[in-house]
Amino acid sequence: MMRVLPEGMQLGVASAAYQIEGGWNVTDKSLSIWDTFGDIPGTIADNTTAKDACKSYEYYKRDVAMLHFLGVMFYRFSISWPRVLPNGFANKISKDGAAYYNNLIDELLANGITPVVTMYHWDLPQNLQDLGGWTNPLIADWFEDYARVLFDLYGDRVKTWITLNEPKQIGLYGYGTRRFAPGINAHGIGEYLSAKNMLMAHARAWHLYDKEYRAKENGTIGITIATDFREGQTDEPEDIQAGLDAMDFEVGLYSHPIFTDKGGFPERVVKLVEEKSKQQGYPQSRLPEFSKDEIEFVKGTSDFYGFNHYSTKFYTRKTYKEGMYPVPSYDDDLGAVWSLLDYEVAILPHCTAIPQGIRKALKWVKDNCNNPPIMITENGFGTLAGLYDEERISYLIKYMDSILDAVEVDGCNVLCYTLWSIMDNFEWSSGLSIKFGIFEVDYEDDARPRKARQSALWYKDLVATRTLKPEYRPFVDNMVF
Ligand code: BGC
Fold this sequence. Notes:
The protein has 16 helices and 15 strands. The strands form four sheets. It has an eight-stranded parallel β-barrel, surrounded by four helices.
């Protein structure tokens, strides 16, 4: 059935600095944790690197031409901290780094495209990691200083700021496991220390903007949280509880301190981590506490809920056994086992198409986060290759259909939808082989030509007609940028 998009729901596409820019060592840019991590043998599945990636540092004008072709209203991109502040600290601003984003923002505005800027999408300056990175509480100071530099440089033209992209992935994968940079693997400890520090850093940036910039710049600032859905494997009460707990661990840990009236970490997470910590002989819970003042400081610090969503997992405790996960660890604290039931698993399992999950996740946010305005800041599908990407189009259609149910039936307040991603890029530890782009990038060619996939033409039509047409499949022309 054809459906018309709600009036006012804006459409855009997204990328992130490290995944597209390349230019890893130009002028005075310093190394990020991903530059360092990517050089360790065995960390990137296909042994590729992001040293050049899509070369957007050089070819950003072509990116903007693609956006213009799509007709999207906004572009979500991120700023590389070590490109703007080569020392990590705000004592020195890189002239070239600052200029790069000035040029990109001006080019977007000249083409009528609104910049939506993520301040941190995972590429921490390596020297700050050497000082503990997100496990050092002082990072709240460093992040606030960095935020001030960005507001001063770009706040006259950037009116939507996203502080952090996906605290769970930063903390759990980067500090609680080896999956992402910096690969600290301090499971059961690192993910919780960094969770608190990220929330404090985020809140500092929000308060800074609120106090010193909002009146003159009139913009908005919020956080983006990975909000995949988790639910019980069956309708039995224990499974339902496992699903609710998984939502609290995966999403609530980051949303509860900001979006609820009570603030602080979710009760169930506090209780489960405290119990396990005690059993394991820790004199204190491995989950740090917020003081009363900190709870108040973090509460209410997001003008919108930045919502990233790809898929759903189903949980049970029936098959959980002590010792199946590292002890201590986040997985062990949750003490449950997940599956994808009998859904057809996608090439990247975290993109398995379970479209009703996005509706449920949006409803969860409405019910558990004080019905905030929601910016869908990412949704998309990873494939192996090809200009005809039927799998992606069909995923996008089903997910958009489910979003429309969330808006029209459940009354979720969705401001915008952002497709991940504008073009193929460096998919973190999966490397360059996994393709999320609606434009295909030819990495063999030094000029990195970008070709429109069928999904790009399909999205262009959605943007132009604002009508979701399940049967529509455009002709793939040879559109190269
Ligand atoms: C991240 C993106 C990533 C995407 C697809 C999100 O978790 O924000 O950087 O490319 O998922 O895996």
